[in-house]
Design a protein that fits this description.
Layout lengths: L2 H29 L17 H29 L3 H24 L3 H25 L1
Helix pairs in contact: 1-2, 1-3, 2-3, 2-4, 3-4
Length: about 130
């Protein structure tokens, strides 16, 4: 398996892990009787600041996964992974870094680091697109 495929499956797996974490947190709170199962706010803010950050990190992944998926799948089906392979894992690491920081910290320095990770992802996707055309 090449780096492009690994990054695509890694990005998808990371997004799924965040969704699973939300489901587990909500299920646990509902089983404890602390929250009605059918009354959670989509952004998680009604549970805790951590829950809100977890939901937002997941939403950020959902917003960007389709963009990367199209780029990666195009590279794979057009046999142009030589364009994406060298930096695909860097993009995945930046995504995981951004989400992790989003979940654990909201200080100004952390937000700046998170924005840097996001900028890396945008720059790489732009570079991939330009070089795949």
């Amino acid at each position: 398996m090449n780096n492009t495929a690994i990054a695509l499956l890694g990005f998808t797996s990371w997004t799924l892990l965040l969704a699973f974490s939300i489901a587990m947190l909500r299920g646990f709170l509902s089983m404890k009787g602390e929250h009605q199962l059918n009354s959670y706010a989509p952004d998680g803010a009604d549970v805790s600041p951590f829950s809100n950050r977890l939901c937002r990190a997941h939403a950020n992944c959902l917003e960007n996964l389709p963009l990367f998926a199209v780029i990666a799948l195009y590279a794979l089906v057009s046999d142009q992974t030589s364009v994406t392979d060298p930096l695909a894992l860097v993009l995945l690491a930046a995504r995981i870094g951004q989400s992790t920081i989003h979940i654990i910290n909201t200080s100004v320095p952390a937000v700046m680091i998170r924005a840097s990770f996001f900028s890396v992802q945008l720059a790489l996707m732009g570079w991939f697109l330009i070089n795949l055309l």
